[in-house]
Amino acid sequence: MTYAALVRPALDRVYIGMRAAARDRLRELTEQTGLRQGLNSSFYFGLLARPMPADAFAAVTAYGAADMSDELAQGVMAVDGTGTWSLTDTGRTYTLALQQTIADAAQQLWAQTLRGALPGDAVLPRLAELLAVLLEAGRATGGPAFLAATPVYEPPGASYALQVSTRMGALRHHRGDAHRAAWAAAGLTLEQLRALSAADALRLAIEQDTNRRDEPVYAVLSEAERWELLGLLAALPN
Questions:
Q1: pLDDT value at position 172?
Q2: CA 83/CA 64 separation, integer angstroms
Q3: Long-range pairs for 69-78 at CB < 8 Å and ≥24 separation?
Q4: pTM score > 0.90 for this model?
Q5: Which of 162, 177, 176, 159 is nearest to 45 (CA)?
Q6: Which residues have a Cβ under 8 Å from the Cβ of 83 and sit 6 or more positions away?
Q7: What pLDDT score does 164 carry?
Q8: Could you give the number of structural domains in the chain?
Q9: CA 107 to chain centre
């Protein structure tokens, strides 16, 4: 098994758990601002730093959510003649609040030690450090979504919870780009991919190719650091 295949469920567990923990806070933010989440919620780490070019938009929305009519109607995002998307002033203010809301929820979740069984948020400084190394390394191997996501935006004085939550979100797009490249190389459309069962030989080959394409980002870490990364992720509660 490749390291990319090994670390993927660990990253997904922590990230998905963090986003689930933020749902109530994000709902309150919507009630306070009158603004609804959209692409800014799943790509704030990149959009706060720079506009999203058309190729990155196509990659990020390949699996759905390409309808941006709500973002446009709310005045949260704008698009130019080249298909490049950017946050409006309203959208930027809202998205900054969204990023902080997610980080606050993550901090509360990760601070749990479960009566001393876990180290809690004590692992965040080192995890933030390793994620920064991976994001920098991925610039050489990432596809359009990852390149639009990095370098990530972090406000001055960002907490470790904000750093980790933001950097994890961006890192997952390295694998996302790898997966899209793998099924495209197999000559499939998205509909054909979705029609394959999890046990289909072609689906398994695509997953293996995804791991192969995702693996180089982790080569920057030593073997000890790769095990350390898995341990740090395991130390965070869902």
A1: 97
A2: 17
A3: 70/36, 70/38, 71/38, 71/39, 71/40, 74/35, 74/36, 74/38, 76/35, 76/38, 76/40, 77/38, 77/39, 77/40
A4: yes
A5: 162
A6: 53, 54, 57
A7: 98
A8: 1
A9: 17
H or E stretch at 86:
strand 85-87
In this predicted structure, what is the pLDDT of residue 221? Answer: 98
3-state SS, residue 85: strand
DSSP structure class, residue 117: T
Amino acid at 94: Y
pLDDT tens digits, one per residue of 84-143: 999 999 999 999 999 999 999 999 999 998 777 778 889 999 999 999 999 999 999 999
Cβ contacts of residue 187 below 8 Å, gap of 6+?
none
Q: How many CA atoms lie within 13 A of 132 on its CB side?
A: 11
pLDDT at 113: 81
Rounded Cα gap, residues 30 and 9, in angstroms: 30
Instruction: Assess whether the previous peptide bond of 53 is cis (omega < 30° from 0).
Output: no
Residues in the chain with pLDDT values less than 70: none
In which domain, by residue range, is 159 found? 3-234
pLDDT for the residue numbered 65? 81
- Tell me what pLDDT residue 212 has: 97
- Phi then psi for residue 150, to 5 deg, are -125, 150
